[in-house]
Amino acid sequence: MCAALPGGSVTTESARADGIRDRAIQHILLVTYLYPPSNVVPAHRPAGLRRAFVSAGVRTTVLTSKISGSFDDDEAQGVIRAGDLRTRFSTQYQTLVGFREGSLEARARPRWWTNYIVPDPTAVAWFPQALVHLLRLIRSDRPDLVITTSGPESSHLLGLVASSFGIRWVADYRDPWLRDAQHPEVLRAVDRVLERQIAQRATIVTAVNDAIANDVTVRHGVRAFTISNGFDRDVLAGASDERATLDPDRFSLVYTGLLGIDADEPVLTRGRDTVAFLDALALLLAGSPDLASRFELVIAGPVSDSEREVLTRGDLRRIVRVLGLLPRARALGIQQAADGLLLIPGGADATTAKVFEYLAARKPILAVTGHYSVAAELLREAGEHTVADPTDAEALVAALQLYLARWTSKGASYEPHPGFDLEAYDYENLGRKLLQLLSVDRPS
Q1: What are the tens digits of pLDDT across the range 91-133?
Q2: Distance in angstroms (rounded) separating the CA atoms of residues 26 and 5
Q3: CB 313: neighbour CB atoms within 10 A?
Q4: For 386-402, what is the mean pLDDT?
């Protein structure tokens, strides 16, 4: 089993500061491929953790890729953006992460040769330049601790390098190892050896949920700790007022983020699950044509032209609105203005930061996922949310009917379960938990 964090969150500033001083953590290097101003979900966790570390008085440098864009004050904020071949050639990836504005006709399949790069293509596109910056930093401003967060897994290669210099290292898993990789069998042995090295040489291994942490423990015999994804309260407070964006006369079910309907992803099932939900919605609309006058599905995220066709096919165009990729403040504002939120995690072990932003919005969630998925268990703990299995078409239609009947009824008002500790998922508290974990010796 994965390890629980000792003692919960730190309750006083002095206790936190004493713990940090005990282990001499004065400078953290946080290595993450994606980081703001990129507005994609994988950039939210490292940004939230960095804010927590800085709030705790720990100077934090960020090493990231230029594919995330840049801010004018990067140097003053300690953000290093390493060169990346992905910025030099016009690709769909640039649009998906917000590096370049524009639209997508359809998502292209990964090029065949990328399946022969271990652990992933960023090992060629980004890692060499990132390595140069890491070595310079070790010589000129040596960090006391390096935290590498994946995917992509190439970020952990930098942790391996840092550990060879005697620097403590946290290997943080946001996803299962090489979740979406399609490496040929001859390279899978290399994958396994590489991950074993990462898991066993890291000072501490962390993961976003117990399922991923347990997997690391079982396969590599390394005690892994759960540091959940979460939300950044300060960022949420900066959300724009989007009430005028939604139709006041209809129940607005909002989805924010990537759908991936036309993506060729062997493990991530979000695209397939989305289509199942749309099929159920079309069936419900066919049986209740008046639904169009009292319900709308609003999609805010990067949508390709081919996805838009699926989302608005037939009578669905009467109830589906596609807003496209929005600035983060607007996306959060739409979550907060919604009547309900649609969650499609895309896998049994997926709990992205969006789940916690949704919970912080305090709106009833309709989750299209298996009843025993990690997200489903979290939602049952959190409040009166609805879970609909995407593999059962009839059950999905029934769940959608019950959801709408429950939350469009007169006087319906969502409240989280009294015992659910939402504050535990604020990145301020999650960052403190990680610092507390690092303030004691690594458990045997």
Answers
A1: 777 777 777 776 665 566 667 777 777 788 888 999 999 999 9
A2: 21
A3: 12
A4: 92
Specify whether 264 is located in the same domain as 347.
yes
Confidence of residue 268 (pLDDT cuts 50, 70, 90): low
Q: Which domain holds residue 145?
A: 13-230+426-438
Residue 152 in this model has a pLDDT that exceeds 70 = yes
Query: Over the stretch 400-415, which tens digit does the pLDDT of each residue have?
Result: 999 999 999 887 899 9
DSSP notation for 32-67: -S--TT--SGGGHHHHHHHHHHHHTT-EEEEEEEGG
pLDDT value, residue 275:
93
CATH code of residue 242: 3.40.50.2000
What interhelical angle do 44-55 and 353-361 show, nearest 10? 70
205 and 323 assigned to the same domain: no
Whether residues 226 and 301 share a domain: the answer is no
Whole-model pTM?
0.85
What DSSP state is assigned to residue 411? Answer: T
| CB proximity list for 383: less than 8 A, separation 6 or greater | 359, 364, 414, 415, 416, 417, 420
C-alpha distances (whole Å) from 54 to each of 47, 51, 342, 422 are 11, 5, 33, 22
Is the N-terminal amide bond of 266 cis, ω within 30° of 0? Answer: no
Q: How many domains does the chain have?
A: 2
Q: Is the peptide bond before 443 cis (omega within 30 degrees of 0)?
A: no
The CA-atom distances, in angstroms, between 68 and each of 84, 97, 256 are: 10, 7, 19
| Amino acid identity, position 78 | G
End-to-end CA distance of the chain: 14
One domain, residues 187 and 270: no
Please give the full DSSP string across 197-217, using - where no structure is assigned: HHHHHSSEEEESSHHHHHHHH
Determine the pLDDT at residue 3. 44
d(CA 264, CA 180): 10
Q: Dump the DSSP string for 222-254.
A: --EEE----B-HHHHHT----GGGS-TTSEEEE
